[in-house]
Design a protein that fits this description.
The complex is a heterodimer.
Chain A lengths: L7 H71 L4 H18 L3 E8 L12 E8 L2 E7 L6 H9 L3 E7 L6 E12 L5 E12 L1 H9 L7 E5 L5 E3 L2 H4 L9 E5 L2 E4 L8 E8 L5 E8 L4 E8 H52 L15 H43 L4 H4 L6 E8 L7 E9 L2 E9 L3 H22 L2 H14 L7 E9 L4 E7 L5 E3 L5 E3 L19 E4 L5 E5 L1 H4 L10 H12 L4 H16 L8 E8 L21 H12 L4 H9 L2 E8 L4 H13 L6 H22 L3 E9 L4 E8 L26 H9 L2 E7 L2 E9 L1
Chain B lengths: L1 E7 L2 E10 L4 H8 L8 E12 L1 H17 L1 E5 L3 H10 L1 H4 L4
Parallel strand pairs in B: 2-3, 3-4
Antiparallel strand pairs in B: 1-2
Helix pairs in contact in B: 1-2
Classes of the chains: A alpha+beta, B alpha/beta.
C-alpha cells in the first residue's frame, strides 16, 4: 500500500501533529519562561542575600571614612594653621582616624596656590601616611593637574575618587576628597584646597575571598566607573585591574556594563574579564557609588534550567513520537478500509455487484460503514432484481392488455358489419390491472347481427387468457352454428371441460334479426341489458339469467327473445358500470344507469356510451377505477321494407307441365323444419371395421372407407390422400406394432364434408407423431428413405392425433373432403 | 397393380397401372431389383397410376440410386396428386419428371 500524501490518514496525522507541536511549543516556552523567571528570582534573592551583609559592611566603612574626611575638612576650613600646626593636626587626624578605621592609610592636604601657610604664591601639599607601623609626614607637589584634585576643586563637592595606586601610597586605594572652604575678609566661603582620605582597598580583596557563594560563584566589587576594585585571585591571573572589565551580553554582542544606566540592583548576563558567560547580580554600594556583584558562571547557573528543559524536551519528544505512532495507526486503521471501500464502491457503481466488500471487524464507525455498505449492496441487488421483475411483469401485462384490446373489434368497419338498419358502438375502459371483460359484434349473415358481452371472474393474466378463449369460442360457435343456444351450450362445454382453475365467465349474447328487430338471446349469469325506447323511456329487458359458463359441462341454455322496436337502443354492459363505487362505498347501481340512459336522450350509440361514462365519472369522482368498464350499445333503425323471400323457376310454356309449377310452389310453401335439417347435418355418422393384422387387409379397409366416403362426393384428391394415409398407417401397424387386431372407426359429417378415421390397435405403444420429420431437401446421396410415410400423412391430412388409451394405440386423422 | 415392361435397346420402360402402395410395391421392387443391368435409361410411365405411397417412393428411390450410377431415370405422366406427393416429400428434387 503506497503512502498517499493527500490521504485522510496523512492529512489527519499532520494536522494533529501540528496541533500537538503548537501545544508542546507553548508549554515548553511557558515553562522555560517560568523557569527562567523563577531561576532569576532565586538568583536575585541569592545575590541579595550574599550582598547584603557585605554591602552594609562596606557602606559602613566608607561612610565612616567620609565622616572622618568631612570632619577634618571642616576643622581645616575654620582655622588658619601654620605649617607646624598643620603637621601636628595631620598626624593627629590620621592617628585618630586609624583607631576608628584601620583601613585609612593616609590623610592628604593640598591648598590652592597661595592659600597654604608660608607659601603666599606657590603650592602647598602635605600628607600624613601610615606605613610599616609608623606615620610619616610627607610634602607633595604638582597636584593641581591630578584628577582627584581638580575634580574636587571644579565640582566644589566631596566625592569618592576612582581607586588608584597612589603616588605616595603604593597600593590600591579608595580616595575620599573634600573641598576646604575658608571665610575671606568679606565672610564669603572661598575654596582654599582639597582634603583627601586614602583608604586601602586590599581588605576588600580579603573580604571578597571569604564570601561564600553557591554554584562556583564569586563576589566582585567595581568602582563607579566600573573598574574592578576587589575580586578573587582566581579571576586576576596576572591581569591588571583595568583588564578586569565586566561586560553585559546583549544578544550576540556585548557592551561594557554600566550600572549608572540601570537600577540600583538587578541581574544580567555578562562576562568578567573576558571569561565565561555568567549570570551576574549587582547592587549599589551607596556610600561610594561602587557596585557589588555576585557572579555565577553560566554553565552552572543554567545547569538547572537546561537540565529541566532537556528533561522536558525528552519527555515531549517521547510523547510526540508515541502520539505520532498512535495517530498513524488510527488513521491507517480508518483510511485503509475506507480506501478499499472506495475501490469497492467504484466497482459497484460500474455495475459489478459481485465485488468483494472488504471485511472490517470491530464496532467502530468504519466497521459500521462497511456493514452498511455491504447491506446496501445486497439491498441494491435485491431491489434491482425486484425492479426488473416488476418492470418485466408490468411490460408483459401491458402487452397482454394491448393484445386483449386489439383483439376486440373497435369499429363496425373492422367487422364489415355496417348497414343502415342499425348503428353500434362499443366502449371498454380497462382497469389498471388487466381484466376479463370483453364484448364482440359481428354479422353471421347479411341479416343477422351478433352482439356479445362477457365478464370473466377474477383479474390479471388468468382472467385475460380465459377471456380470450371465451370470446374466440363464442365467436366461432356463433358464426358456425348460427344458433344462440347451441353456441352457448358448446362454448360452455368447451370451457368447462378443462377448467382446473375453476374460473367462470358471464356472457350475454344475442342474434339480432336486422329485418325484424327480433333478438334471440341467452344469458349465462350476466346482467340484463337495458333498452332505451325511441319515446325516451328506459327499462331493463326481461332476461332470465342462467348458470355462468365454465361451471358445469352439461349446462343447457334456453333461448329467449326480445323484439326491438324501431329506434330502440339496446345497451349491454358489465358490472364495472353498475358496481362503480364512489368514496362513500355507494354503487352506481341500476337506477343511476337507467337515469343516465334516459338523460342521454336520443343520441347516437357512441354518445350514449360516453354519456354513461360521464355519469359514472361524476359519481365516483376521484376514486380509482377498480373494474373494467365495458359497454356495447346497438341502435335498431329498422327497415320500412317488408321481408320477402324470393324464389324463381323457369318453365317451358309450350310444354306446360302444371304439375311442375304446382310442386314448385308447394315445395316453397311447405314449411321446412330448419332446425331438424340442421341437426341432421350436424350429426356425425359413425362406422366401424375390425380386421386382423395382415397386409392384405389393407385393401379391405381401403374399400370400407371408400364405400363410406364416396356418397359424400368429396374431391378425388382428398379421397386419394385418405387412401394413401390408410396405406401408410396400416402398413406401419403391420410392420412395427406387433398388434393382432386393428379397429378402424370412420366418422363423417355431411354438413361440413368432414371425415375422421381412427385406427385402434392393440400393439405396443407407438406415437408416430413424435417421430422426427425427414429432411426432404437433402440430395439423393444423403437421403434416408425411412419416416416418409407418416410425414406424408401429416402433410396431407388436416389433423393427426395420437393417444395411448389403455392398452391400445389410437391414431385419429381428419380430413375435409 | 399391373406393370407393363417395354425394352428398347438399353431403354427400359415400366408402365404402371393402379396404385403403387404397400401391397403393390413388392411387385415393382421385383421388377427393378437386380434386373436393371445394362439399362441406360429407365422410364416410369405413370399415365395410369392413381397414387404412390411411401412404399412406392422407396422403390423409386432405390431405382434412382441405381440409375444414377449407370444412366438416367425418368418419371413420365405423373398426375397432379402424385406430383403433390413428390413435392411434399422432396422427391421432385431427386427425380426427373417429364
Amino acid at each position: 500500500m503506497g503512502f498517499n500524501l493527500r490521504g485522510l490518514a496523512f492529512k489527519q496525522s499532520m494536522m494533529i501533529l501540528a496541533a500537538i507541536t503548537v501545544v508542546f511549543g507553548l508549554i515548553f516556552g511557558i515553562t522555560s519562561h517560568k523557569t527562567q523567571n523563577m531561576l532569576n528570582k532565586i538568583t536575585t534573592e541569592n545575590g541579595e542575600e550574599t550582598s547584603r551583609a557585605n554591602v552594609n559592611y562596606i557602606d559602613k566603612l566608607f561612610n565612616s571614612g567620609k565622616l572622618v574626611g568631612d570632619d577634618i575638612a571642616e576643622t581645616l576650613g575654620k582655622s588658619k594653621m601654620t605649617k607646624a600646626e598643620l603637621d601636628t593636626f595631620l598626624l593627629h587626624s590620621l592617628t585618630n582616624a586609624r583607631t576608628l578605621i584601620p583601613q585609612i592609610v593616609a590623610v592628604v592636604l593640598a591648598y590652592e596656590p597661595g592659600m597654604g601657610p608660608e607659601t603666599p604664591k606657590g603650592e602647598f601639599m602635605r600628607l600624613a601616611r601610615f606605613s610599616e607601623n609608623e606615620i610619616r609626614l610627607i610634602t607633595g607637589a604638582n597636584y593641581q593637574d591630578k584628577e582627584w584634585y581638580y575634580s574636587t576643586r571644579e565640582g566644589k563637592t566631596s566625592r569618592w575618587q576612582e581607586p588608584f595606586i597612589g603616588e605616595f601610597v603604593p597600593e590600591p586605594i579608595a580616595v575620599y576628597t573634600v573641598p576646604i572652604f575658608q571665610k575671606d575678609k568679606d565672610g564669603k566661603d572661598v575654596l582654599a584646597g582639597v582634603l583627601a582620605v586614602d583608604m586601602s582597598t586590599d581588605f576588600l580583596k580579603d573580604e571578597i575571598a571569604t564570601i561564600p557563594v553557591s554554584n562556583s560563584g564569586y563576589a566582585l566589587i567595581t568602582s563607579a566607573k566600573n573598574v574592578a576594585v576587589a575580586y578573587p585571585k582566581s579571576i586576576a591571573q596576572g591581569k591588571a585591574n583595568k583588564e578586569i572589565v565586566v561586560r553585559e551580553i546583549r544578544g550576540k554582542s556585548s557592551i561594557p556594563f554600566a550600572r549608572a544606566a540601570k537600577d540600583t540592583s538587578g541581574l544580567f548576563l555578562g562576562t568578567v574579564a573576558g571569561g565565561e558567560e555568567s549570570a551576574i547580580y549587582y547592587t549599589t554600594i551607596h556610600s561610594n557609588n561602587w557596585t557589588f556583584m555576585v557572579v555565577w558562571p553560566i554553565q552552572k547557573y543554567l545547569e538547572d534550567q537546561k537540565s529541566m528543559g532537556k528533561l522536558f524536551l525528552v519527555l515531549s519528544l517521547g510523547a510526540y513520537g508515541f502520539l505520532l505512532v498512535v495517530i498513524l495507526l488510527i488513521s491507517f486503521r480508518v483510511a485503509r478500509p475506507l480506501r478499499n471501500l472506495a475501490v469497492a464502491a467504484k466497482k459497484l457503481g460500474g455495475g459489478n455487484f459481485d465485488v468483494d466488500i472488504p471485511k472490517v471487524t470491530g464496532h467502530d464507525e468504519v466497521a459500521e460503514f462497511a456493514l452498511a455498505f455491504s447491506n446496501m449492496r445486497s439491498s441494491l441487488v435485491e431491489n434491482l432484481e425486484k425492479q426488473k421483475d416488476m418492470k418485466r411483469i408490468e411490460r408483459e401485462l401491458d402487452l397482454a392488455r394491448n393484445i386483449q384490446r386489439s383483439m376486440l373489434p373497435g369499429k363496425e368497419r373492422d367487422e364489415n358489419s355496417e348497414d343502415d338498419r342499425h348503428e353500434l358502438a362499443p366502449f371498454l375502459l380497462p382497469a389498471k390491472e388487466v381484466g376479463g371483460d370483453f364484448y364482440d359484434f359481428f354479422k353471421i349473415d347479411n341479416d343477422h347481427l351478433c352482439v356479445v358481452i362477457g365478464d370473466v371472474s377474477g383479474k390479471g393474466v388468468p382472467a385475460a387468457l380465459f377471456m380470450m378463449v371465451s370470446r374466440i369460442l363464442m365467436r366461432t360457435m356463433l358464426k358456425n352454428l348460427k344458433s344462440i343456444v347451441e353456441a352457448f351450450n358448446k362454448t360452455n362445454y368447451a370451457l368447462a371441460k378443462r377448467n382446473d382453475l375453476m374460473m367462470f365467465v358471464t356472457v350475454w349474447a344475442g342474434i339480432i334479426d336486422l329485418r325484424t328487430g327480433r333478438v334471440e338471446f341467452a344469458s349465462a349469469g350476466h346482467n340484463p341489458p337495458a333498452v332505451r325506447h325511441s319515446d325516451g323511456s328506459v327499462e331493463f329487458i326481461p332476461s332470465r339469467s342462467e348458470l355462468v359458463m365454465a361451471a358445469m359441462e352439461d349446462t343447457v341454455y334456453n333461448q329467449q327473445t326480445y323484439d326491438l322496436k324501431k329506434g330502440d337502443t339496446l345497451f349491454l354492459y358489465t358490472d364495472g358500470v353498475t358496481e362503480a363505487t364512489n368514496g362513500k362505498d355507494e354503487l352506481f347501481g341500476n337506477d343511476r344507469l337507467l337515469e343516465a340512459l334516459r338523460e342521454g336522450g336520443n343520441q347516437n350509440t357512441a354518445d350514449t356510451c360516453a354519456q354513461v361514462k360521464k355519469e359514472i365519472d361524476g359519481f365516483v369522482r376521484d376514486v380509482p377505477q377498480f373494474d373494467d368498464i365495458t359497454m356495447l350499445a346497438v341502435k335498431f333503425n329498422g327497415t320500412d321494407e317488408p321481408v320477402w323471400e324470393r324464389y324463381e323457376k323457369t318453365i317451358n310454356v309450350a310444354e306446360t307441365d302444371k304439375g311442375a309449377l304446382k310442386s314448385f310452389v308447394q315445395d316453397i310453401l311447405t314449411p321446412m323444419d330448419g332446425a331438424k335439417k340442421m341437426q341432421m347435418q350436424d350429426a356425425w355418422e359413425r362406422y366401424e371395421k375390425i380386421v386382423d393384422v395382415i397386409p392384405e387387409n389393407q385393401d379391405v379397409l381401403t374399400a370400407f372407407v371408400e364405400g363410406i366416403l364416396a356418397p359424400m362426393e368429396g374431391s378425388m384428391k382428398s379421397q386419394m390422400q385418405i387412401n394413401i394415409a390408410i396405406d401408410e398407417i396400416y402398413s406401419n401397424i403391420v410392420k412395427f406394432s406387433g398388434a393382432t387386431e386393428v379397429t378402424l372407426v370412420v366418422e363423417i359429417r355431411k354438413a361440413t364434408l368432414s371425415a375422421r378415421l381412427t385406427f385402434i390397435d392393440n400393439g405396443k405403444p407407438y406415437d408416430p407423431i413424435k417421430q422426427a420429420d425427414p429432411d426432404v431437401t437433402l440430395p439423393i446421396e444423403e437421403r434416408e428413405i425411412g419416416g416418409l410415410g407418416i410425414f406424408i400423412v401429416k402433410k396431407t391430412m388436416d389433423s393427426v392425433c395420437y393417444r395411448r388409451n389403455g392398452d391400445k394405440n389410437e391414431l385419429a386423422i381428419t380430413k375435409n373432403l | 397393380m399391373q406393370i407393363t415392361k417395354t425394352v428398347e435397346n438399353d431403354n427400359l420402360t415400366l408402365s404402371l397401372e393402379g396404385r403403387l402402395d404397400t401391397l403393390t410395391a413388392p411387385q415393382l421392387e421385383a421388377e427393378v431389383n437386380g434386373k436393371l443391368d445394362g439399362v441406360k435409361t429407365l422410364i416410369f410411365d405413370f399415365q395410369n397410376l392413381a397414387y404412390v405411397s411411401s412404399a412406392g417412393l422407396r422403390i423409386l428411390f432405390m431405382a434412382q440410386k441405381i440409375m444414377n450410377k449407370q444412366g438416367k431415370m425418368i418419371v413420365r405422366n405423373a398426375n397432379a396428386d402424385i406430383k403433390d406427393i413428390f413435392t411434399v416429400t422432396g422427391f421432385s428434387n431427386i427425380l426427373t419428371l417429364e
